[in-house]
Amino acid sequence: MRDRKPVQPEAAAPMLYLASQSPRRLQLLTQWGVTCELLLPDATEDAESLEAVKAGESPRRYVQRVTRLKLLAALQRLQRRGLPPAPVLCADTTVALGDRILGKPASADEARSMLAALSGRTHKVYTSVAVGVIQKTELSSHIYQALSASKVTFSELTPDAIDRYVATGESVGKAGAYGIQGLAALWTSRIDGSYSGIMGLPAFETAQVLQQAGLHLV
Q1: What is the pLDDT of residue 138?
Q2: Exposure of 32 by Cβ count < 10 A (0-12 exposed, 13-18 middle, 19+ buried)?
Q3: In Å, how far are 49, 57, 169, 199 from 108, measured between CA atoms?
Q4: Closest CA to 145 of 52, 208, 201, 61
Q5: Do residues 185 and 154 touch, judged by C-beta distance below 8 A?
Q6: Quick one: which H or E segment has residue 91?
Q7: What is the pLDDT of residues 7-63, one digit of tens each?
Q8: Residue 110: how many other CB atoms lie within 10 Å
Q9: Residue 142: is its pLDDT beyond 70?
Q10: Binning pLDDT at 50, 70 and 90, where does residue 154 land?
Q11: pTM for this one?
């Protein structure tokens, strides 16, 4: 009778807190084998104020600063709630047309204006991802951060096409008034960079910062 090799126990899935309401980020992390618990702001927190743009701020610097602020707020939230320690992940995405930052549209009219500006042009999408780990022995936090920069080229968009797209509701809550994973993909003639980064969480950069924080996805 042949000796049977002992069955190796399966490694536990890496676990982290996700301080983001984005279903796309949760979807991607789950797809990569990460177990996530949401760590969302309290009703008393003014999370929107963290996204305010400073005068003269470049899109690259803006998205990195906002991501770090969101992470610091999430780390404080973790300690305040007395939750078990685990890495905390935050990310932020912005669309830039030159030096102009296109955030989340506040209305359907603003969404139409953004899409008209992107029509037939190449724009940049910046996504910053950051992971924080609280070190109890040092009473401090270690933060690991990375930036993904991609270029997206849209075909010419007619006013009717823009109206139909905005009517679908896909523009709501999305930087630049569109989601690459939705119908806007039908307008996208070229992508240079990270598709997942354009969605809101760059795979390569996320794996790198998680590895620095002690979580290995593969």
Answers
A1: 52
A2: middle
A3: 21, 26, 9, 21
A4: 208
A5: no
A6: strand 88-97
A7: 444 555 689 999 999 999 999 999 999 999 999 998 888 888 898 999 999 999 999
A8: 16
A9: yes
A10: very high
A11: 0.90
Radius of gyration of the chain (CA): 19
Domains of the chain: 15-212 (3.90.950.10)
Contact 188, 152 (CB under 8 A): yes
Question: Residue 185's Cα: distance from chain center in Å?
Answer: 18
How far is the C-alpha of 38 from the C-alpha of 199, rounded, in Å? 19
**153 contacts 111 by C-beta, under 8 angstroms:** no
Q: Is 148 helix (H, G, I), strand (E, B) or coil?
A: strand
Beta-carbon contacts of 211 under 8 Å, excluding residues fewer than 6 positions away, are 217
pLDDT given for residue 8 in this prediction: 42
| Residue 40 to residue 48: CA distance in whole angstroms | 13
Q: Is 3 a catalytic residue?
A: no
Cα separation, 169 vs 167, whole angstroms: 5
| Among 3, 42, 92, 163, the one annotated catalytic | 92
Q: What is the pLDDT, as a whole number, of residue 104? A: 94
What pLDDT, on the 0 to 100 scale, is given for residue 111?
A: 98
CA distances from 89 to 68, 86, 96, 179, 207 (A): 10, 10, 23, 21, 11
How confident is the model over 112-140, as pLDDT tens digits? 999 999 999 999 999 999 999 987 655 56
